[in-house]
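Spend some time on the protein that follows and explain the fold to me:
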Amino acid sequence: MNRELSQSVIWIHAVSVGEVNAAVPLILALKRQYAGFAIVVTTTTPTGADAVTRQLGNGVTHLFFPLDAPRFLDRFIERIRPSALIVMETEIWPNLFARCQHQHIPVMLANARLSSRSFTKYQMLGRLMAETLAQVSAIAAQDEKDAERFIALGASREITQAIGSLKFDAAFPPSLKEKAQAFRRHLGATRLIFMAGSTRAGEEPLVLEAYRRMRREFPSLLLVLAPRHPDRVADIVSLISRDGLVAVRRSSEQTCTNDTNVYLLDTLGELTAFYAASDVVFVGGSLVPKGSHNVIEPAALGKPVLVGPNIDNFRDACTRLSAAGGLQIVANGDELYDAARRLLADADRRDAVGEFARQVVAQNRGSTDRLLAMIGKVLRPLSSVNEASSESF
């Protein structure tokens, strides 16, 4: 990689798809506000890399994250020469932060969160964690509880601020509505659609059982099932077939007919559009102890949202949505069935709950601007870079 050294680089590390999605509004804002800086985004997973390419194209440079060892880190840092590093969410790397401090590169944690499980794990590291966080220039936490956990681990209160979740600021492309309408026609324009998104191992049997029970009242109901990891699809197909249900895989490009019971979304990058095409949404990773996946996305689309009790990753968002009536927390498969059945049976209630959810998202936007203000304090000494400078990788 060759780069004109007159141009500064902002390095953003987003481990995988969820972190990339959260980073996109920030990256777009940085490109507008700091046009003289190049943006390098690192991920650790191929799916994260795909998300960067799909959403940001040639507007940024994607590289895979190096091994967290001094020799590899020094080589990588020398390669891109970053002026600052912004790390998304819960990625705390002692060697990385130490090497950045050694080379006078400020480090920020953005959209930072600490689940109770992560907090307990990091507490065991004691002094190492305190020393690592002492090397951070700013921490933009998602909520007050996250902020207090970082401070309890040793972060300075002066640099730690709760600004809300960047996921509230996610913007949908203008083409999304048209794409969702096309999916709806493909799935069956007159059919009710119950979608289970980002499901994890152990959740599909619960979802399928709830679906079978719902079909007694809604015989034409279609289940759109989107596992978090598509490489588990073969096992899920076996579960579906064992129960005598007819499934169609998205990747097969087969037609979804009236005889199709389960539409298996085994492709990447289409979750949002299928959320938009559905009537009721369950967000996975929550009926098993994974902390839930992104409940804000379907809420922003005006969909009634159901989620299990394991919500540590989206605790604040779930609390806000639930209090406003836009989301319901279900304890188990029986409650999932009952809550989904009630929503499917009442179109007016579905619309009202979905609107409550949409309003909560709208009311909580603005985290990106607050984060940019924090970033500005770190980048201000660097932002006098020649706006006309260019780069080639």
About this structure: The radius of gyration is 22 Å. The chain has a mean pLDDT of 93. The CA atoms of residues 268 and 366 lie 28 Å apart. The chain is about 45% helix and 15% strand.
